[in-house]
Design goal:
Layout (H helix, E strand, L loop, with lengths): L5 E2 L1 H8 L3 H10 L6 E3 L2 E5 H15 L4 H13 L3 H12 L8 E3 L1 H7 L5 H9 L4 E3 L2 E4 L2 H12 L4 H36 L7 H41 L3 H5 L1
Antiparallel strand pairs: 1-3, 2-3, 4-6, 5-6
């Protein structure tokens, strides 16, 4: 059996995208349990990480630290802290198996041969590439691979980057709508009922069920629209692009 992961306060802050100052503040306010102290070193575990991520997500939704502290106390008193952490883990789970990768300059040259170096900076600005000491971290490898395929069939790198920028804007709006479906119709009624601890597992299950639904709906609708658009464009171009002499022959 693998040993349970444990972190120093600095490691916990890095993993959660927070700061040591915030962590100490959360402990003082009762939002975060104290660490296990061994030889004067405080050690945190996965439950601390899950709780810290939950605090961050709730703050993003507009909850004050006082409200979050009240929520945590209510669940602890209801002896359903495990349910709270289960919800936190559901929030923190990645929504895709497209895990970040690393690419070197040589890798990029292979994928995008003869590309203008200035376009690499644009890819950095768009968040497709994150510079590191020995190359680049790629947060969304699928997008980079799709871009490489577009370039391979003749689409300029600049046009592929334009499309990514537009696509991300479209995806942000779609994601916001699906998130609103959950929080408006599932979470808000739960809040209106006073956030009963015994119903938290339902919130977790609903959130987990939302994961494949958004992707399923987008892929299905996009596929249908692609079929329609390709058929319409092909018909239009076959007529307009046919040489005038070809019709007579």
């Amino acid at each position: 059996m693998m040993a349970a992961a444990r972190f120093t306060i600095e490691e916990l802050a890095h993993r959660a995208g927070s700061s040591t100052r915030n962590i100490r503040n959360y402990q003082t306010r009762g939002l975060l349990p104290p660490p296990q102290v061994v030889n004067r070193v405080g050690w945190y575990d996965e439950d601390h990480l899950a709780r810290l991520r939950l605090i961050g997500r709730l703050q993003e939704q507009g909850y004050s630290l006082a409200a979050i502290a009240h929520l945590c106390r209510a669940w602890e008193e209801g002896q359903s802290l495990a349910d709270l952490l289960g919800f936190a883990r559901a929030l923190a789970e990645p929504w895709s198996e497209d895990a970040p990768e690393k690419l070197t300059l040589a890798d990029l040259a292979d994928l995008f041969a003869d590309a203008d170096p200035s376009l690499r900076q644009r890819a950095v600005e768009l968040g497709l590439l994150v510079p590191e000491e020995d190359g680049f971290r790629v947060p969304i490898p699928g997008a980079v691979r799709a871009g490489a395929e577009l370039v391979a069939v003749g689409v300029p790198v600049s046009a592929a980057l334009d499309e990514f920028e537009d696509l991300r804007g479209d995806a942000e709006r779609i994601a916001a709508r699906f998130v609103a479906l959950y929080f408006d119709h599932v979470w808000t009624p739960f809040v209106d009922e006073g956030m009963p601890p015994e119903r938290l597992p339902e919130m977790t299950e609903a959130l987990q069920r939302m994961r494949p639904l958004a992707t399923m709906a987008v892929v299905s609708v996009l596929a249908a629209e692609m079929e329609r658009a390709v058929a319409a464009a092909a018909a239009e171009h076959l007529v307009s692009d046919t040489p005038s002499g070809a019709e007579a022959s």
